Amino acid sequence: MDGEGGTAEAVLALPRSRRGGGGPSPLEVLGRRRHEDSHERYLAFLLDPRQVHGLGAGLLGALLALAGRPELADDPRLVRARVHRQVRGAKSRPDLIVVWPGGTVVVELKVDAPEGDEQTTHQGDDFADLYEPVFVYLTPTGRPAGDGRFRPVSLRDLAGHLARLLEAAGTTAPGRRHADDYLSDLENTVGISTDDDDDARLWMTHSAALLAAQEATRRLLRQLAGRVLTEFEGLAAELGEGVGAVSVDYEAVGERLHPETAVLLCRPQWLDDGGPRLGFGFGVRRRTSEKNPGPDFDEPNLRPFHGIYCTDPDVWPVLKKRFVSTTWGAHWVWWEDLPLTPHPAGVGFLDHNGPAVAALVRDTWQERAATVDAIWAEHRTA
Predict the structure, then answer these.
(1) What is the pLDDT of residues 288-317, one digit of tens each?
(2) N or C, where is the chain less crowded by C-beta within 10 Å?
(3) Residue 166 CA to chain centroid, in angstroms?
(4) pTM for the whole thing?
């Protein structure tokens, strides 16, 4: 991984790429990621140079440049522009109209919806008499409009310009956060990060090493259950009261059967000849074949997890209600993904994450064991 862009520090220094780690954008939280009205309101704010985003007429100029009018993009009078939403014409109502002393931009925005019957033709006719009109058809991919007067512009390209404006501005304007938020929303809506060029260069340069590192991580994950069992044996002695550590293989019931292994802390009464009926512990997908390759840090459905294991039919529904649980298969009445973290230099993956799993399960035991004991005593199968 040596060379330009090859070190971990160089990867982290790439300007804005979220690489799956930035969390949900505001419109995702609100369930409006692909609602045109929400995008329209954001754009009305950002295209207005009088607003408090700190970008001036930068995004308006970028939109004009993308629409093939760079001479208008450089007009100093853009700072006097005003933005209007949903202006009614004789037969149409564009999403946005931006007016400044040097011209007008008429914007029809489409996120998912197709163009209506002769929609852009009606807009082109209704607003043809505006001063120096520039008609823009703004979509995620830059698809053409039905009427040739409209210039296609992609939201992906606009997102790239917004990212560069934010990088250059360095502003502390009170509305800057809204511009950052909308960039996140644009990237998620379009499905392509504005840093794709940098990331593609990194991948094409180092793909062999990165794939080898991914496979090494998978091999270590397959060894984690054994290390966790060792950690649990020490933890069981600490918890006392006859607590023991056990490992059990089972088939989790999802859309199909999934081979998994559980490593559990159990009280003696939670065990019978068929194996554990209740326990606190660690679950991981088990490798059995190419079809069942085992745990994978990069696949959400294959990541190791921790939780409360239960196969008792009387105790299960009471625990589920008590902990407002997300269940998995017929074995885990409550579970969460493990927050596995990179190991520091000089410490192995298993040496770092094995004790971390044990500490997390110990915390869950201390928080919930008394409640589980009470439910078991009252509702367990005789």
Answers:
(1) 887 778 999 888 889 999 999 999 999 999
(2) C
(3) 21
(4) 0.65
